[in-house]
Amino acid sequence: MASVRPAAVAGAFYPAERQLLARELDELYGGVETLEPRLGWPKALIVPHAGYIYSGPVAARAFDELAPARGLVRRVVLLGPVHRVPVRGLALPGTDAFDTPLGRIPVDAAGVAALASLPQVVTSAPAHALEHALEVQLPFLQQVLGEFSLVPLAVGQASVPQVAEVLERLWGGPETVIVISTDLSHYHAYGEAKRIDGATLQKIAGFATDIHHEEACGATPLNGMLFLAKKKNLEIKLLTACNSGDTAGGRGRVVGYSSFALHEPGGAVPLEEAGQVLLSAARAALEHQFFGKENPVFSYPWLKQTGATFVTLTKDGKLRGCIGSLEAKRPLGVDVAENAVAAATRDPRFPALTAAEWPGCGVEVSLLSAPKPLRFADEADLLEQVRPGADGIIVEQEGKRATFLPQVWEGIADKRLFFGELMKKAGMPEASRLARCKVWRYRVAKWKS
């Protein structure tokens, strides 16, 4: 029988019921306002660990950066401070798995074995039994990554080199992500907390290794991570920061929260560079379709991440086919190739493109960001939030669904007319009310050849 560390703070820090937890995570991820498409994912994240009502939005902003890594990241190395049971060193739980309301996460046996020779790594079930700093991160990771294995380390007394040595041993490749769990200052008045946390944020961004526990409760794992990150030339980016006075608490005694993403050199892929590759992949798929040419082998790792694209074909300046994906469900390289062929052969508005027509056609590839739900009180509120020219829009009502890419604004500038045509495209009855629709928006990066 496998030994399992059960969920200890479900029902306190986050919902204990599976469906309620999944719904809350959907709302937190849906509230992340970063809409631009992105490729690649961070090697490491720094995230807070309070109850979701307090620090959930800040944590979601960080974990949303891992959305492109679903199915590719297979191991998470998770370090956080001990709050209840002191420990000397970095403590493994001595269990085979962790449970949350979303399911069971196996402890990574190979990762545990890799640490066996390090004297600063110990085993302490009591240090993990009621510890929330690690547990609260797990449902976020399950929701965004799906299946993965875990190396959970509850960190007590340890030096910067000792923490860095453990992380170095577990560094791995693109299949491994490191998560450092820490809040910032505790129980100062709002203004004083802003001042203290502002200075701490500067220290983190500067790869300082002398952060105190009064500045960040997870200072020990944080300092070790920053030491190694500087050594490996990682790039660090502040994603967001606030405190409990900004989220769900009073301003007399607040706790600070922040999230950072750390990328290995070359880990963040420039969109313009990616666009030329995607155009080449689309054109190669069509050359294979029409002339049987062998598809080139594209070795870019980011083409394996899940992605959503639209491929648009034009002839003599007019639309000749357009097919795409609204949700990222298959590898990006596969998605763009299959959408290119579908745009040429299966767009129901046009006859299939012929080999003779193909040389005179233009190709446009649009890379979509993850759609985010728009929350609105009424139609006027919805229209006020929409940004013509920038927002791609999805509408849905009673199973009928359609989208317009942001490019459609070039021909329909009026918001009401835009939505009217989109609802018509979805096949909704003329009497349908926009205020009763579900609406999502997304952004695109687009390239033409």
CATH class of the largest domain: Alpha Beta
Overall number of structural domains: 3
Please name the CATH topology of the largest domain: Protocatechuate 4,5-dioxygenase, Chain B
- C-alpha termini separation: 58 Å
CATH superfamily of the largest domain: LigB-like
Quaternary form: single chain
- The amount of helix comes to 25-40%
Number of strands: 22
- Portion of residues in beta strands equals 15-25%
- Given helix and strand content, the structural type is alpha+beta
| Average residue-wise pLDDT | 95
Structure annotation, total helices: 14
Provide the low-confidence segments as ranges.
none
CATH architecture of the largest domain: 3-Layer(aba) Sandwich
Principal-axes geometry comes out as globular
User: What value does the Rg take, in angstroms?
Assistant: 24 Å
Main sheet? Answer: 9 strands, mixed
List keywords for this structure.
Glycoprotein, Type 4 Pilin, Dna Ligase, domain 1, alpha+beta, Protocatechuate 4,5-dioxygenase, Chain B, 14 helices, 449 residues, 3 domains
